[in-house]
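Please predict the structure of the following assembly.
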Amino acid sequence: SAVISQKPSRDICQRGTSLTIQCQVDSQVTMMFWYRQQPGQSLTLIATANQGSEATYESGFVIDKFPISRPNLTFSTLTVSNMSPEDSSIYLCSFSGGRDRGAGNTIYFGEGSWLTVV
Amino acid sequence: DAKTTQPPSMDCAEGRAANLPCNHSTISGNEYVYWYRQIHSQGPQYIIHGLKNNETNEMASLIITEDRKSSTLILPHATLRDTAVYYCIVRALPGGTASKLTFGTGTRLQVTL
């Protein structure tokens, strides 16, 4: 399967600032997903990003707060805007790729970006 | 996507088989059962998936009941490195294209000496 990497792996951010997380896959993939995992919680999908179209956001997430870019089939960014302490989370990039016995494409995850907002 | 129910936590002795149950009584005919695990501080790791037949790979075995309303993930010889949160996810595949994963709370497996 393809390799996926995220940057930064962790960061400490000031309240009110914005941070962009980059996600790079080493092969072309159709769909990329961004998840958030708040401390002690499970993963929550933020949005689905297809190349060449606007991201589709899940309920509770808006583009102004979490703008996403998907300029090509190997790269995506997620920006966390105007951060507050409540945005302290792990942000995970994932992609749909690989052929797996007719089940569509299995989703694989990066290692995540740990953000702490102070 | 159908909802899944898992026990919040389980213990297993190292070297023994870990059997993690999952209930998905409302699963539809076109929905697959996927298992992921998340070791502390890491991204979720794909383990295995299946539709209706039992499946086995180098990591685990997946046993799906005949009515598909429940399944069991089996780690045949658990090690301390298998300590993680295990997520059972039912995933619909409209039109054969990829679809999102919806995570529940999972089962926290603790492997002990």
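The first strand of chain A starts at residue 4 and ends at 7. The interface with chain B takes residues 30-31, 33, 35, 42-45, 48, 92, 94, 96, 100, 102-112, 114 of chain A (CB under 8 Å).
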